[in-house]
Amino acid sequence: MIEMTPAEIAAVTGGRLHRIDEEAAAVPVTAVEFDSRRVGPGGLFLALPGERADGHDFAAQAVTRGATAVLAGREVDAPAVVVPPVEVRDSHTYLGAVDPDGTGAAVLAGLGRLARHVLGALPGLAVVGVTGSAGKTSTKDLLAAVLSPLGPTVAPPESFNNELGTPYTALRADAGTRNLVLEFSARGIGHIAALCAVAPPRIGVVLNVGSAHLGEFGSRAAIATAKGELVEALPPGDLPGGRGGVAVLNADDELVAAMATRTPARVVTFGRAADAHVRATDVTLTAGRASFRLVTPAGSADVALRLVGEHQVSNALAAAAVALELGGTPDGIAAALSAATPASRWRMEVTDRADGVTVVNDAYNANPESVRAAITALGQIAGPDRRAWAVLGPMAEIGDGAAAEHAAAAENARAAGARVVAVGAPDYGPGAEHVADVPAALTLLRERTRPGDVVLVKASRSAGLERLAAGLLTTEGMVCR
Questions:
Q1: How confident is the model at residue 96 (pLDDT cuts 50, 70, 90)?
Q2: Ordered strands of the 31-33 beta sheet
Q3: What are residue 266's phi and psi, to 5 degrees?
Q4: What pLDDT is attached to residue 475?
Q5: Considering only CA atoms, which of 124, 126, 147, 16 is closest in space to residue 70?
Q6: Which residues contact 92 (CB under 8 A, 6 or more apart)?
Q7: Which is it for the CA torsion 196, 157, 148, 275, positive or negative?
Q8: What would the pLDDT profile of 195-208 be if each residue is shown by its tens digit?
Q9: What is the pTM of this model?
Q10: First-residue to last-residue Cα distance in the chain
Q11: Contacts of 1 by beta carbon, 8 Å cutoff, 6+ apart
Q12: 312-325 and 330-339 helices, crossing angle to 10°
């Protein structure tokens, strides 16, 4: 973050100084933090109400730890910038958390104004926004890998892709940052547009339009409308001085490709399609890891991904298209993609146990498309000689077709030669073995897996199946037979 004083922050956010005298108003702030346990000297603590605690109650503690000031929605027992109230139009305005007096929404609004101001003070910064129904986090990690050799790059830690995560990540950029990568998520129409207003992107990447949050949107067409807000927010492609907008679109997804008519930016496409600007040819798979020839207008190069899953080819092409726009070469991009390793937890993490069992932890989230991709990777890792287990929890927020999608996932798993273990309430059909919860699934797998087996753990985040994957990797989980 560029240095700003509490007085400057108050001016930018429309707030007022509370318990800050003239001398303290000039002390620089150099970072923002929403966890009072992690705040340090020069920090601005964000007093956000949560499900179990209200950050306003930890304001004094944050200052004791070194925070310069607190960004608050009401007066606190500490030096603070108190931001004005805002009208809360829906739960997404404050992440669905408990916020009876609107203070959380007010702090987020102030944080957004602060981020917009800081980004406006960094005219040489290239802001890259990524959205899609699946693959956002893997792609932003690949973007960080291919852009870092080109200059200092900031990307979100894990999936920081909402009203808090977007400005929080943006404020990590400073005068030395060349590239800023941001994820943009949505649970309704207008949400991505609001995030773009906080952190205006110059390059926008749309990966795909799938079934994630179908229950909230109602149709894939509505999801496409929401995702397309990213490319609508881009600047015109013909601006001088390297400031023109670029829309990076998946040529293999017809709903994404159609977004070319919705943007003033220059359009670059990626995919397997023969007419894509950046494409992959000669794709081969070894134990679930893809190798391919990266073909671009600037030349070609060979890529051997260390990430698991054929779906990572599309993510890698998206990252490559952005890197080419920002000065990368095909050889340099191919080298960075080939060296990239998983950077965010619980996403196709492959671990070989001491007893020969391989655990694939993809338990961060699940929708029909990502489950199909994970099951395909499971079959590729197992091959013809190893037993495969698909341990599946619920796919959340996919609407009225949930029963059919769960049944289809089980059928896909069986077609891939996997034994299906369904954890919790979803009905994966008569061919699946249903267990009540994570402990029951762990007991079953400890009893029945044998050396050489491959176990995929996949579910929506709320199911907690990451605990199952962790349990399979403890000493107790390694039962040799």
A1: low
A2: 16-18, 80-82, 69-72, 43-46, 31-33
A3: -70, 140
A4: 56
A5: 16
A6: 163, 187, 188, 191
A7: negative
A8: 999 999 999 999 99
A9: 0.91
A10: 54
A11: 29, 30, 31, 32, 118, 171, 172, 173, 174
A12: 140
